[in-house]
Design a protein that fits this description.
The complex is a heterotrimer of chains A (about 180), B (about 375) and C (about 270). With about 180 residues, chain A is an alpha/beta fold. Chain A has helices spanning about 15-30, 75-85, 115-120, 130-140, 145-155, 160-180, and strands spanning about 5-10, 35-40, 50-55, 70-75, 90-95, 110-115. Chain A has a single domain, classed as Pyruvate-ferredoxin oxidoreductase, PFOR, domain III (Pyruvate-ferredoxin Oxidoreductase, domain 3), CATH 3.40.920.10. Chain A is built from six helices and six strands; from the N terminus they run βαβββαββαααα. In chain A, strands 2-3-1-4-5-6 form a six-stranded mixed β-sheet, with helices on both faces. In chain A, α2 (about 75-85) links the parallel β4 and β5 (about 90-95). The relative contact order of chain A is 0.17. Chain B is α/β, with parallel strands linked by helices and about 375 residues long. Chain B folds into two domains: about 5-185, 3-Layer(aba) Sandwich (Rossmann fold); about 270-375, Rossmann fold, CATH 3.40.50.920. Chain B is built from 14 helices and 15 strands. Chain B has helices at about 10-20, 35-45, 60-70, 80-85, 90-95, 125-130, 145-160, 170-175, 245-260, 260-265, 285-295, 315-325, 340-345, 365-375; strands at about 5-10, 25-30, 50-55, 75-80, 100-105, 140, 165-170, 180-185, 230, 270, 280, 305-310, 310-315, 330-335, 355-360. Chain B is globular. Chain C is an alpha/beta fold. Chain C has one domain: Thiamin diphosphate (ThDP)-binding fold, Pyr/PP domains (Rossmann fold). Chain C has an eight-stranded mixed β-sheet, sandwiched between helices. In chain C, α4 packs across α5 (about 100-110). The longest helix of chain C has 15 residues, at about 20-35. Chain C is globular and about 65 Å long. The chains are: A alpha/beta (about 180), B alpha/beta (about 375), C alpha/beta (about 270). Chains B and C meet through α2, α3, α5 and β9 of B and β2, α3, α5 and α11 of C. β9 (about 230) of chain B pairs parallel with β2 of chain C.
């Protein structure tokens, strides 16, 4: 596979870091891929624009940080403004329609998806916004299978919340596939 | 049996390594970026009947593990920059009283509070000379989680073999990054058990009299041998002494037991060094960027390789000389102002051919940073 | 067992000055342990730095002579890792309450089963007579040549406030009471503090014109009184001796064993 460098960004509490970890863990544990995940710590992680980097590959990954992502996700205006210009030319830029107004022209495929609205309408719980985002990323990139994501979720969260997460993941997958 | 695979932080890989090595007592104090080690052990240690305690400060944590080692346990504490400074006096006590123990320092930017959440490798010399007085120390490091695990096990093995504190000098990038770890099967990595005395109760036991092979069998507090442990210079019974012969003999013993076994403790990795005229020397997370640039320059025909040091102290001078003496360029890649670079310069035949590729701004050194420095060194311009 | 079997004769003569109260504390401690009939193999003595801390070397227990102020932190590691051991920590006033003050209050707060003996001679003796947190205002010391302006701690009140579940005070003059109190402190399950007022004729006595060791011991007799005595009611200046606190509270190592049970029982 082509090495994929990703940056998930947003504000603290949106779960972008958790989403990054779930994706990377799914790749390593269930797809036999190599993955490295890093994130911003400290003041940067407490309010303001937070980010988490993930690299997926089928060979060893030495340098663990992402400088130019192939895939960039921005879930807030602040994170969009801060990170939009790091995208690799021709990369994929995913934003949420509710939180981000894309005004700037970048050399990337821009996908503006109503992830938050869909989650609120169909699930009614903002807590699974990040899983919907993950679904959209997987739907657009097909880096890992949704089943692998579900296997990770089943390990990480109480059984009572699995269904809600599955629903959010499916909603994201649909949103992603629709605009692919 | 299928291998146990985990996708975890480097700090957790260290925890897994420590548990594999037989850790049963941890004392610590919260500090970024090492806190995850304490958090995970607070959960995992009692599950196997071990003990975890969050002490009132960094100093107390170091003291508590020394106490617990004396009752016969494998012990660990973990800290970062400022906490490592606070532990130095009791670290020296562990050197003097020859107490097996392992201290993790997940390095962050300093001096003082510095940049707590950013990476640095600035504690190399502090690990060597942080506690006062002549002494020797063992410090290991690693650049990836499999090696963090292995070096943690190694640290416990060396601590028990040589009755010495061992420092694990990790850094923020390796500590916080998540990647794959495959837990070795039990027995896959050999473990060193504490050597206990065979001397029977009622017979004079000498806790500080080395055997012919240099090792000193121990006796647990609570067992039949009651002896004295002190940070004062002491005789073979552990009784304080200022007899010049005893002072000299003890200091020589403390240094020699480490320095004379430097080659036995040298752990390192080599990449593409067979024909390399440019040798990068690196360690910890910086070695990841170094390897990245080596692997991207090799296909372009550049004869470049990497020597990754995993044992920092005692400094593996023989290994460094072996690989760097004939190199046209030796470039030390580290995130400090040249602490290992200085050691390499004093070691190799041509110190004028040793260069530093570093970064000290809290930002992880990139392959491009190294590439640019290589071009400057070779007079090609950036 | 004979009293002398509790000491390491190899270590003698001891380094204390003639007239020092610390030898009397050693004596009281041995008598207490002897009465309890405890095996020497189950006794651990952990000390720090100072005149008082040398007491550990003289006892034929497992002895750990550590660094200044940190004895209780080392002792916490010994005790928690092997709770069946009896851990006694003799400390000086500077060792326990100045450089070691933080460890003192936190060991008390945890109520870990350790017996702390504060040998209070109101001075740093080993370094030659500097003022300690128990010297008190108006006293002279080599670092208080114009008289001391530092207020002192009350060890008993401090230990009580920090959560110690056994707190007592005695003096080097009252040897019988000292042995009894130390015995009760060792038997107590939890953090025990025994303040033993001890004389330092060499530094505190000489600097403050308190005469010989005998004079200083007489002063201890005259300036102290049993808790709640009629004499105290008449003269509030008198210092009370006896057991101030003796209560049952969950002990740290026992509580940790419950954590282990919970952790092993599947969270």
């Amino acid at each position: 596979m082509e090495r994929c460098r990703m940056v998930f960004s947003g504000s603290g509490g949106q779960g972008v870091i958790t989403a990054a970890i779930i994706l990377a863990e799914a790749a390593v544990l269930y797809e036999n891929l190599t993955a490295v995940q890093t994130q911003a710590y400290g003041a940067a992680a407490r309010g303001g624009a937070t980010r988490s980097d993930v690299i997926l590959a089928d060979s060893p990954i030495n340098f663990p940080k992402v400088i130019q992502p192939n895939v960039l996700v921005c879930l807030t205006q602040e994170s969009y403004n801060k990170f939009f210009d790091i995208i690799r030319p021709g990369g994929l830029l995913i934003t949420d329609t509710r939180f981000v107004k894309t005004q700037l022209k970048v050399d990337a495929v821009q996908k503006e998806l109503p992830m938050y609205e869909t989650v609120m309408e169909k699930v009614g719980k903002p807590i699974v916004f990040n899983i919907c985002m993950l679904g959209a990323v997987v739907g657009l990139t097909e880096l890992v299978t949704p089943e692998s994501i579900m296997k990770v979720l089943e390990q990480r969260i109480p059984s009572g919340f699995i269904e809600m997460n599955r629903q959010a993941l499916d909603l994201g997958l649909e949103l992603g596939k629709k605009v692919k | 049996m299928t291998k146990q695979i985990k996708f975890i932080q480097g700090n957790e890989a260290c925890v897994e390594g420590a548990l594999y090595a037989g850790l049963d007592f941890f004392a610590g104090y919260p500090i970024t970026p090492s806190t995850e080690i304490a958090e995970h052990l607070s959960k995992l240690l009692p599950q196997k009947g071990g003990k975890f305690i969050q002490m009132e400060d960094e100093i107390a944590s170091m003291c508590a593990i020394i106490g617990a080692s004396l009752t016969g346990h494998k012990v660990l504490t973990a800290t970062s920059g400022p906490g490592f400074s606070l532990k130095q006096e009791s670290l020296g006590y562990a050197v003097m009283a020859e107490i097996p123990c392992v201290i993790v320092n997940v390095q962050r930017g300093g001096p003082s509070t510095g940049v707590p959440t950013h990476v640095s490798q600035g504690d190399v010399m502090q690990a060597r000379w942080g506690t006062h007085g002549d002494h020797s120390i063992v410090a290991l490091t690693a650049s990836n989680h499999q090696d963090v695990f292995a070096m943690t096990v190694e640290a416990f093995n060396i601590a028990e073999t040589f009755r010495t504190p061992v420092i694990l000098l990790f850094d923020e990038v390796v500590g916080h990054m998540r990647e794959r770890l495959e837990i070795p099967e039990p027995g896959e990595i050999p473990l060193v058990k504490r050597l206990r005395t065979a001397v029977k109760g009622g017979v004079d036991y000498h806790p500080y009299l080395p055997r012919e092979d240099g090792r000193l069998p121990m006796s647990d507090f609570g067992d039949v041998h009651r002896y004295n442990v002190t940070g004062l210079v002491h005789d073979m019974w552990g009784f304080p002494s200022d007899n010049p012969k005893i002072v000299h003999g003890l200091l020589r013993h403390l240094v020699d037991k480490i320095e004379n076994n430097a080659s036995q403790m040298a752990r390192y990795k080599t990449f593409y060094l067979e024909d390399a005229d440019t040798v990068l020397v690196s360690f910890g997370s910086a070695a990841r960027s170094a390897l990245h640039i080596v692997e991207s320059l090799r296909p372009r025909g550049e004869k470049i390789g990497l020597l990754e040091l995993q044992t920092i102290w005692p400094f593996p001078a023989d290994i460094v000389s072996q690989y760097c003496n004939n190199a046209k360029y030796t470039v030390v890649v580290e995130m400090n102002m040249g602490q290992v670079c200085q050691m390499v310069k004093t070691t190799v035949r041509h110190p004028e051919r040793v260069f530093l590729a570093n970064r000290i701004d809290g930002v992880f050194i990139t392959p491009t940073d190294i590439k640019n420095i290589l071009r400057l060194i070779k007079g090609k311009g950036v | 067992m004979a009293v002398k079997d509790y000491i390491r004769e190899r270590f003698f003569p001891h380094l204390w000055c003639p007239g020092c109260g610390h030898g009397i504390v050693l004596n009281g401690l041995i008598r207490a342990v002897e009465k309890l009939g405890m095996s020497r193999n189950e006794m651990v003595m952990v000390s720090g730095i100072g005149c008082s801390s040398r007491i550990s070397g003289y006892m034929d227990f497992h002895t750990l002579h550590t660094i200044h102020g940190r004895a209780l932190a080392f002792a916490t590691g010994v005790k928690l890792s092997k709770p069946e051991l009896n851990v006694i920590v003799p400390m000086g006033d500077g060792d326990a309450l100045s450089i070691g003050g933080n460890h003192f209050i936190h060991a008390a707060r945890r109520n870990i089963d350790i017996t702390a003996i504060v040998m209070n001679n109101r001075i740093y003796g080993m370094t030659g007579g500097q003022y300690s947190p128990l010297t008190g205002p108006g006293m002279m010391a080599t670092t208080a040549p114009y008289s001391n302006i530092d207020q002192e701690f009350d060890v008993v009140e401090m230990a009580r406030a920090a959560g110690a579940t056994f707190v007592a005070r005695t003096t080097a003059y009252h040897v019988q009471q000292m042995a009894d109190i130390i015995r009760a402190a060792i038997l107590h399950e939890g953090f025990s503090v025994v303040e033993v007022m001890s004389q330092c004729p060499t530094y505190f006595g000489r600097k403050n014109k308190q005469g010989s060791a005998v004079d200083m011991m007489k002063r201890m007799k005259e300036t102290t009184t049993p808790i709640g005595s009629a004499a105290k009611a008449k003269n509030p200046e008198l210092i009370e001796r006896g057991i101030f606190v003796q209560v049952d509270k969950p002990e740290y190592c026992s509580e940790y064993n419950k954590i282990i049970e919970r952790a092993m029982g599947g969270r």
